[in-house]
Write a structure and sequence with these properties.
Structural class: alpha/beta
Strand content: 15-25%
Radius of gyration: 17 Å
Largest sheet: 9 strands, mixed
Strand order of the largest sheet: 2-1-3-4-11-10-9-6-7
CATH superfamily: Class I glutamine amidotransferase (GATase) domain
CATH topology: Rossmann fold
Length: 239
Amino acid sequence: MNIALSFSSGSESYTNYSKWLIEAHPDAHIVHLDEYALEDIEPIVKTCSGIVFTGGEDINPSFYGQSDRLKDCTVDDIRDAREMKMFEICTSFHIPILAICRGEQIINVFSGGTLIVDIPSDIQSDIEHRSVNGIDSVHEILIQPGSLLRKIVKTDSIQVNSSHHQAVQHLPPMFTASAYSHDDIIEAIEWADPNGNSFLLSVQWHPERLDYSHPCSLSIAKHFLMEAESYSMLFLPLP
């Protein structure tokens, strides 16, 4: 079963994604999409049973009408363009999607949403969302009753890690927020109406960096890979 990572180079921390996924499903074969040219991405993605949009740099604020805030961001325009293409392919072919941190943000922006450009500058909050001296912060999230996320993690509130200075602001109507922090920043999104859509879950924390016994870590990977396996059986040709 091929599982794609949208981006997985440039930092040793990206190895955590592969380790986490393989721990959840030892037969998962990880495909590193950043190893392929843009014109080769579509045929590769179409061989995959699921894709994880990984963390990383900020989304260029010009995509959501805030080009004057570019000075507040560290961007990678090539990666933005590549991942937007990947998301378009996935939704066209109903490929299961799990998005983490930046991944949540790129999906929201591609779909017409906006971001808080810089939480410390734009939001009055006592909660630290950024990492401090290279160490993830920790804060509580509140999970919405009846949400897909609630069904997966089986808790209403829990402490998670945090390492971001941007966050989802406006959600387009196809999404709904399934978790918030106490300062009302969106911490997870999913389809507002899952009918007719493939699996999609986006979280702002880093489940791959949490202890695997944490309710918001390996359980998410396992559920995503279960959905990917179902997709593989239904839509991909036998090897």
